[in-house]
Amino acid sequence: MKPRQFVPAFIVFVLIIALIPVFVGFNEYFILLATVVLIYGVITTAWNVMGGIAGQLDLGATAYLGIGAYVAGNMLIWWNITPWIGMFVGAIIAAGFASAIGYVMFRYGVKEIWYALSTLGLVEVLRVIFMLWKEVGGPLEKYLPRSKTDPFYYMSFGSYIPYFYIALIFLLITFLVNYRLRYSKIGYSMLALGSNEDAAESLGIDTRRTKLKGLFIYSFIVGAFGGFYACFCSFIHPNTDFNMNFALEIAVLGIVGGLGTYYGPLLAASILVSLKEYLRAVFGTIVLGIYPAIFGLAIILIILFKPEGLSSILKNVYIKLRKGGGTKHGRQQHS
Amino acid sequence: MGGNNILETKEIVKRFGGIVALNNVNIGIEKGRITGLIGPNGAGKTTLLNVISGFLKPDHGKVIFKGKDITGLLPHKICELGLARTFQIVKPFLNFTVEESLLIGTLKKRSGREAQELINNVLEYFELDELRSKLCRELNVTQLKELELARAMATEPELLLLDEPGAGLNPKETSRFMRMIRDINRKKKITILIVEHVMPIIMGLCETVYVLHYGEIIARGTPRCISKNEQVINAYLGEKW
Amino acid sequence: MLDVVAQSVISGLINGLIYAMVALGLSVIYGVMDLINFAHGEFVMLAMYFTFWIVSFSGLDQTVAFLPALPIFFLVGVLIYYGMLNRTMGTPLSQIALMLGVAMVIRSFVQIAGGTAPKGLPPSFIFGVLNIGSLAISYSRVATAVVSLVLLIIVHLFLTKTYTGLSMLAASDDRTAAYLMGINVKRIYALAFGLGLALVTIPAAFLMTYQHADPSSYLRFGLLSWCIVALAGLGRISGIIPAAIIVGIAESLVVTFVAPEAHSLPIYLLFILVIWLKPKGLFGRK
Ligand SMILES: Nc1ncnc2c1ncn2[C@@H]1O[C@H](COP(=O)(O)OP(=O)(O)OP(=O)(O)O)[C@@H](O)[C@H]1O
Ligand SMILES: [Mg+2]
């Protein structure tokens, strides 16, 4: 049931992204912009496992991101352990934490809007805890050690290009996880769960376990990415890492992109985050605070006029192209 | 009740806040037969199905399936043991195709070619072949009801619980549905418990009927017997069937 | 020691009563439409700014400054319903995204129109301080708490005693049944959403008798309100008061005995625990 036709398209797509630094003439500002887009892309694509495929409105992305950032960051600060290892440890701790919380929530039947609100609350609770917990956090930025001689070990580079490629690798992995999942048994269970929980349960799907699996995969990726995020920012701070608005943005991008497709979130992140950063750059100095309005309006317009999400545009183009090429119509995708 | 029962409920009590939806309900479903469950609106029929299939935990009492106590097990576990159900209000996977909807039912027990074969059989059996790659959101209610039954069949159950399969169907569709249900019972040897308001369906299909009224079983017998029972007639007084 | 606890509790109680009014609009919307208004905190903030502007330009007292804002907010609510929510009914995710979009627009608007500096007003006609032992509570807070109680009672009576209010409750209980009873559900929803937003103007005006408004006020009032609604259970007006009082007292105790920065911690912890253990709310009946 795998639509293999997507594989070549995917490879072309990755190559194009990989060449972005060349297209922009290695302009640091544009590469930074592209890296920010990728950061949103990675987290939203990971979110898609839980929010899109399994249909659980998770608003806690930055809870896991923050845990990953603090674990990797502190390991580097305290013990001088490279973030490459820290990332992995962070991922395990973030996923372990998420699973423990998730186990209790799913056990007690927390779902829908209540799941959304409690995951969002979790971000804020963690932010406050890390603010007060002076040993690991505290209200001051904790800067990560840097080194000119061994930037790779410290993941602290003088240019944005390495960050860009690390984020791209993350995106690739996340994308492949989504893709694999989407057409596997677990993926189908997740989709069924997201589509109609009672029906799925009555047909033999263990919805609690399915949710836990989704949450584990998602929080593992985001937790690992937290380590990278800490290095990218070059410091850790509760407001940066456990940021509610960031978590909300992720969910909104996922919804706007088109739930349950594996490319929609990335599409939304590319379009909307570029738009946002562009607006910030252009209007930020002229009219303070105008860009969230335009960003917000863009979201409203997309929801009202493209309720199936941005991915449906891509899908339609794709179907037209294939029809134009005289081949048989492609199999219907879930929207 | 004899030892030939595939399912028994023992003194089931279920309350919602102040409402006693089920009060000391004992029923037995004989293996291989079609048993009916009737009762006026709000009698607790759906609640009983929910308790049996694990969607609700009873406050008191036991559900015994194939001699095993399944009280409090989760629905998916109960499904695995061979008990499938449909819902009074259809619960489709709107963005799935008909074929994919059936696939969900097979996930637990089969995979690969076996699953595909099973799906093909079910599609053929329910004459859903032409609809196989249609999205559920494009189907009408009758088709969704059929699909729901087909989906339940894809889990290869031994006992099937049907919650008002006839509601909202016209007479022609109803007789087709009755034929299908009888067929499933006779040819596939699947025991059926059917909740229904439409009396002709009950009359035509069931050998035993239970009558539920305000959460209590007030009568049990053959359909003919039941329709003459004074208490039952009183319970339904003012009801329009 | 006991004195400190007592003072902390009294202060929390007053705050709790005020919070009840802040959460009221959210509760009405959730109760009737089953929709969590993610822009609630932003609307509270916007109404605070409105109060500031109205008072600055007209010289009205804060305590009546909500009068011009109230119909405007009501209208905005009705427009948002017909323009956006009505078209996305039955797709809760889209509605959440929509309201987040609205929230961003409001945040922007407040920043552009009001700047980043906090906005405060001179004292209203209610001023002075009430001394209870060594505890000093400003009269404006006491007055706000009293107004809150009165408003809650009015809204409760409206919902349970008037035809429109009862139709709202009917619509919330069962949409199809409401249709059958001849209630125009769409109109009821539009009304509920309008009412939910209009109800934000009164607490906002009274908050401005003793508080500043700034572009981050939304954060505090948004989550706070969700917590209260969660504790109260399914949009029950009667549950709001005890829920809000619990929140107020918990917050106050933590501020006194742990750390002022931790003031939101007990609220969210309570909130999360209640959602997990009693998803229908502490005071929910159904
Ligand atoms: N989840 C629930 N929470 C509260 N009360 C419930 C719940 N489910 C059912 N009830 C109540 O329990 C009683 C029995 O309801 P049930 O749905 O089982 O009736 P029914 O016999 O299936 O009726 P119908 O013929 O209308 O389908 C009713 O009074 C109903 O209001
Ligand atoms: Mg029923």
UniProtKB/TrEMBL annotation, chain A:
Keywords: Cell membrane, Membrane, Transmembrane, Transmembrane helix. InterPro entries: ABC_transp_permease, LivM-like. It is a multi-pass membrane protein. The lineage of its organism: Archaea, Methanobacteriati, Candidatus Hadarchaeota, Candidatus Hadarchaeia, Candidatus Hadarchaeales. GO terms for cellular component: plasma membrane. Its main location: membrane. This is Branched-chain amino acid ABC transporter permease. The chain crosses the membrane at residues 7-24, 30-49, 61-79, 85-106, 113-133, 153-177, 215-238, 250-275, 282-305. GO terms for molecular function: branched-chain amino acid transmembrane transporter activity. It is found in: Cell membrane.
TrEMBL record, chain B:
PROSITE patterns: ABC_TRANSPORTER_2. Residues 7-239 form the ABC transporter domain. Keywords: Amino-acid transport, ATP-binding, Nucleotide-binding, Transport. It comes from the Archaea. One of its GO terms (cellular component) is plasma membrane. GO terms for biological process: amino acid transport. The keyword Transmembrane does not apply. GO terms for molecular function: ATP binding; ATP hydrolysis activity. Belongs to the ABC transporter superfamily. This is Probable branched-chain amino acid transport ATP-binding protein LivG. The lineage of its organism: Archaea, Methanobacteriati, Candidatus Hadarchaeota, Candidatus Hadarchaeia, Candidatus Hadarchaeales.
UniProtKB/TrEMBL annotation, chain C:
GO terms for molecular function: transmembrane transporter activity. It is a multi-pass membrane protein. One of its GO terms (cellular component) is plasma membrane. Signal peptide: none annotated. Keywords: Amino-acid transport, Cell membrane, Membrane, Transmembrane, Transmembrane helix, Transport. It holds the Pfam family BPD_transp_2. One of its GO terms (biological process) is amino acid transport. InterPro entries: ABC_transp_permease, BCAA_transport_permease. It is found in: Cell membrane. Belongs to the binding-protein-dependent transport system permease family. LivHM subfamily. This is Branched-chain amino acid ABC transporter permease.
